Amino acid sequence: MKKITVLLVLLASVFVFNSCKKIAGCTDQAAQNYNADANEDDGSCTYLAIGDSYQGGKIAYILQPGETGYDAKVQHGLIAAPTDQDTAAGWGSVGTLISGADGTAVGTGNQNTIDIVAGCSAAGTAARICSDLGLGGYTDWYLPSKDELQKLYLNRAQIGGFATSFYWSSSEATANEAWWYSFFDGGAYAYSKSTPIRVRAVRSF
User: Fold this and answer.
1) Is residue 8 scored above 50 in pLDDT?
2) pTM of the full predicted structure?
3) Handedness of CA 123, 133, 198, 200 (dihedral sign)
4) What percent of the chain is predicted at pLDDT more than 70?
5) 72 vs 41, 56, 60, 62, 99, CA distance in Å?
């Protein structure tokens, strides 16, 4: 009985010692170098930043609290292709309203693109160019929505490769017009779908 008691005491002592042992490291789950074993933060946490090369392109935007897809424990956002995919592509489907392609908010570009490709069989349209893109080992690229394209404009210096020109969004305005974004003045304009302008693909992470 005494032997069992002594053994239990020793085991308890080992447990207490290990539980009190300090393991320094990054304790923030949202950081890239999070250490699940660490119980003391050592200030070493590193995070993704706008302009970082990551998963096939450049970090273009990091989701903020309240936005669809935001997770306080894991960074999510948009990755922009490092260069334009086309310099003179039309939006397509002139005279036809594409059901479901009217999303403008951050987080709607991918579904817009899916709906455009499903509803417009023409080759070489802005959405199809992005949907067909294989870049950096990833094939889930899409044409950004109006608000997603605005994030690219605001962070254009860090992302790089943009022309002072117009870029298509995947957000449809009417049967004959879709939204584009001016990289001249930062404004969004609804214009004819047949207009040949630039395309920059994005993907989500």
Assistant:
1) no
2) 0.83
3) positive
4) 90
5) 18, 24, 18, 11, 33
Residues in Cβ contact with 66 at an 8 Å cutoff, skipping those fewer than 6 apart:
none
Question: CB pairs under 8 A, 24+ apart, for 66-73?
Answer: 67/106, 67/107, 68/105, 68/106, 68/107, 69/107, 69/204, 71/30, 72/30, 73/29, 73/30
CA distances from 120 to 77, 94, 95, 157 (A): 28, 10, 11, 33
Q: How confident is the model at residue 4 (pLDDT cuts 50, 70, 90)?
A: low
Q: Tell me the per-residue pLDDT of 119-149, one tens digit each, with 9 for 90 and over.
A: 999 999 999 999 999 999 999 999 999 999 9
- Secondary structure of residue 170 in the 3-state scheme: strand
Contacts of residue 132, defined as CB under 8 A and 6 or more positions apart, other chains included, come to none
Q: What three-state secondary structure class fits 188?
A: strand
